[in-house]
Amino acid sequence: MSHLTTENEACAAHLDARSVLIVITAPTSGLDQTSLDADDLRRVGSGLYQAGASNDAVKATLSQVSHLTLKRARTVPPVRGNGTEDASEHVYSLVYYRFESPTPQQKKQTQRLLMRAPCVRLRPGVLLFPHLRKKDVAKYFTTEGKTDLLRAKRLDEELTALGARVTRWSRLKLIGLRSSETVENAIDRMIEHDLRTIELRIRQVKDALSRTDLSNKTLRRRYGEIWTRLKLLKRTYAVIQDVWHHDTERPLRRTYNLLLRLRRAIQNRPNPTGEGATETL
């Protein structure tokens, strides 16, 4: 059974060798548990279950829904820069968090933390991180002169400090090709969502170029905010590409080019009347 952290605790939950962790990655309305005993499939969070590693009844039930399955990994291999390892060799940490009744401030602070976390969102409140050796952590999560990216343990600590209830499992590996494909699809969906959000902001600033009541200073500030977000996204995506060998450069290139075109448009824009305007976009 998983351990839910309380107050200032931030420790990893335990998963023994005879159990697996199951993440439902689609709406659970199709999950029929009526044929299962309570000990067969134990709910440990929203869309998150723990079960025996060799339970045919659970396997039959899970065939109804999209999911991935993880088990305890015996070892943590080094990251191979050439990408020759199979996805089944990757080791992960899983973080589940929830707030009882989150305040607007808690939501905002949580989003800021997640921006610094190189992970894939499997479902609301469920995050999958690479679990690395200490040497690899220093290489991929730390950049001189920049704020460190957040590992699973650090995010656990930060969310707990915000008042969330957090569960974290470490040293996990995926079971089966289906689970690997589910993670790959989740990464693609996450990238598409993140970049679509940024491109929407780019279009909003581009549409505002014709407004004479907006100063170039205001437009440059909005451009700077988008650029800062994209740079941080590029850092977190670089970890996903370097560690999991999932191509993130190609989708980033399109968004980067859109932002460069916006910068040139702002640079070439004549100063409007009322350059001192302070109205926001």
Structure summarized in a few sentences:
The protein has seven helices and nine strands; from the N terminus they run ββββαββαββααβααα.
Write the topology of this structure:
Blueprint lengths: L11 E2 L5 E6 L16 E5 L2 E5 L3 H7 L4 E6 L19 E7 L5 H12 L4 E4 L2 E5 L3 H8 L10 H11 L2 E10 L1 H32 L8 H29 L4 H19 L14
Parallel strand pairs: 1-9
Antiparallel strand pairs: 2-4, 2-5, 3-4, 5-9, 6-8, 6-9, 7-8
Helix pairs in contact: 2-4, 5-6, 5-7, 6-7
State the helix count: 7
Q: What kind of sheet is the major sheet?
A: 9 strands, mixed
Low-pLDDT stretches are 1-10, 275-281
Name the average pLDDT: 86
Structural class: alpha+beta
Q: H/E series, N to C?
A: EEEEHEEHEEHHEHHH
**How far apart lie the N and C ends?**
49 Å
Provide the number of structural domains.
Answer: 2
Q: How much helix is in the residues?
A: 40-55%
Q: What is Rg?
A: 22 Å
Total count of strands: 9
**Beta-strand fraction estimate:** 15-25%
Query: Any idea what the shape is?
Result: elongated
Task: Please explain how this structure is put together.
It is built from 7 helices and 9 strands. It has 281 residues and is an alpha+beta fold. It folds into 2 domains: 12-174, no CATH class; 189-267, no CATH class. Strand 3 and strand 4 form a beta hairpin. Helix 2 packs antiparallel against helix 4. The longest helix is centred in the C-terminal third of the chain and has 32 residues, at 176-207.
Descriptive labels:
281 residues, alpha+beta, nine-stranded mixed β-sheet, 7 helices
